[in-house]
Specification:
Elements lengths: L2 H22 L4 H18 L2 H16 L1 H26 L3 H18 L1 H15 L1
Helix pairs in contact: 1-2, 3-4, 4-5
Length: 129
Amino acid sequence: MSTAWKLCAAVFLIAVLYATLKSWLPAWAPLIAASCSMFVLVLLFSEGASLSIFQRLAALQDYAGAAFLSCVYRAVGILLLTDLARDFCKDAGLSAAAGCLDFAGRILVLIAIEPMLTQIYQEIQFLTG
């Protein structure tokens, strides 16, 4: 069975377990969700999938350059952090703050990839003359 199918099955089982335990034991549900998430990460990194991801990122860096990859890393980091904060706000019942965080994350990503967009624009201008 491929890693993707194992991960899909694990996530489905985690969702069912979390939904079941949330109604019976609401205090334990976040702990079980966190431990199941760690299980998914261990499964992901034990299958060697991470090695192929890092090999692909190294090939991308050789092809596009370190500046492009740096912009991508920054954008991914911003997206992950704002998504996490947005989910915390939604869970706390602060939907207005969650919407603001979502918008702020999008703006920060645009700011983070601005050097990459500028370089792409200059390449297009050079090619079109």
